[in-house]
């Protein structure tokens, strides 16, 4: 059982994630106990009709009941799916909601062994939302696009595409120093990974700084 949309997990899978050092029989029993405790805790805040519906077990697999449980990861997924087929102004509303929702990495501060691939998937959703919304805002409100991309860079500081888009926003604002600052920040961030900005990014930064009237 995870908080990922549509996810189901068997007792054995959950046991391997949460009780990796326990014997199989012990891990299974602990999973059943934890699921029962979760139902009890959630049920105390629910109604009589839903008190046993938050955690479902079917064919030996657990899942959170989407009819009674609201998870922000599910909401983010649904917002992004809807945005890809929506037209303006609805598309912008959906992307704005997605950007507002994605304000921190999944399970920030935790280091569960199973977490990283799921955190990466959700990071990609959040980054895509910011890039798409910035595209929509760039011509009409470059300051809002710039602010949005600054937030996104704070969440995903190694993502070069965010810096590139932010350079275009700074250019639209006539902020040559801001473009230079972004390139320096990107260079410093990528140094952590023993990497450097792409040549195209460096060339773009130079071009934008030297052409204040052209994007």
Layout of helices and strands:
Blueprint: E1 9-10, H1 11-18, H2 24-44, E2 55-58, E3 61-64, H3 72-85, H4 90-101, H5 115-138, H6 142-155, H7 160-172, H8 176-191, H9 199-210
Antiparallel strand pairs: 1-3, 2-3
Any key phrases for this structure?
215 residues; mainly alpha; 3-stranded antiparallel β-sheet; 3 strands; elongated; disordered N terminus
Widest beta sheet: strand line-up: 1-3-2
The radius of gyration is 22 Å
Strand and helix order: EHHEEHHHHHHH
Q: Determine the mean pLDDT.
A: 84
Number of strands: 3
* Terminus-to-terminus distance: 48 Å
DSSP strand (E) fraction?
Answer: under 5%
Helix content: 55-70%
Structural class: mainly alpha
Count, helices: 9
Q: How would a crystallographer describe the biggest sheet?
A: 3 strands, antiparallel
Which of globular, elongated, flat, extended, rod-shaped describes the shape?
A: elongated
Uncertain parts: 1-6
Structure commentary:
The chain has a 3-stranded antiparallel sheet. It has helices at 11-18, 24-44, 72-85, 90-101, 115-138, 142-155, 160-172, 176-191, 199-210; strands at 9-10, 55-58, 61-64. The protein is built from 9 helices and 3 strands. Helix 4 packs across helix 5. Helix content is 62%, strand content 5%. It is mainly alpha-helical. The protein is elongated and about 65 Å long. The N and C termini lie far apart (48 Å). Strand 2 (55-58) and strand 3 form a beta hairpin.
């Amino acid at each position: 059982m995870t908080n990922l949309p549509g996810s189901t997990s068997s007792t054995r899978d959950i046991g391997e994630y949460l009780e990796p050092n326990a014997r199989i029989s012990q891990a299974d029993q602990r999973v059943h106990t934890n699921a029962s405790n979760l139902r009890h805790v959630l049920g105390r805040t629910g109604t009589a009709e839903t008190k046993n519906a938050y955690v479902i077990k079917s064919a030996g697999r657990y899942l959170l009941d989407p009819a009674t449980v609201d998870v922000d990861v599910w909401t983010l997924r649904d917002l992004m799916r809807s945005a890809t087929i929506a037209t303006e102004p609805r598309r912008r509303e959906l992307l704005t909601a997605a950007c507002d929702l994605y304000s921190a990495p999944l399970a920030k501060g935790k280091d569960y062994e199973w977490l990283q691939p799921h955190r990466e998937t959700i990071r990609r959703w959040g980054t895509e939302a910011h890039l798409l919304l910035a595209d929509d805002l760039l011509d009409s409100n470059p300051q809002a696009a710039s602010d949005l991309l600054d937030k996104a860079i704070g969440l995903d500081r190694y993502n070069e595409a965010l810096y590139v888009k932010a350079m275009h926003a700074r250019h639209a604002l006539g902020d040559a120093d801001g473009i230079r600052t972004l390139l320096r920040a990107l260079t410093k961030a990528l140094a952590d990974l023993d990497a450097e900005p792409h040549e195209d990014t460096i060339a773009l930064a130079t071009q934008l700084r030297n052409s204040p009237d052209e994007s």
